[in-house]
Amino acid sequence: MAGNWLKYKNSDNVTVIVNLEHAIRFRHFESGNESYVEVVVGEEAHSILISLDPGAYQDVIDYIKRATGYELT
User: Which tens digit of pLDDT belongs to each residue from 46-69?
Assistant: First the structure.
């Protein structure tokens, strides 16, 4: 992750880059390989799935901890 920008894959053919600094809400769903983090930026929700992009998923979890002080497991 470069600064607060996150690059993630949401399918085999699509890569998305989003600035986490503009997030207004995070939602975490934990269920093993089906876990994901939803990041809401403006009116658009971005779902980062651990099964599709585990590195980006962990980057978001780490960003949430740094930015908010909340640790998600």
Answer: 999 999 999 999 999 999 999 999
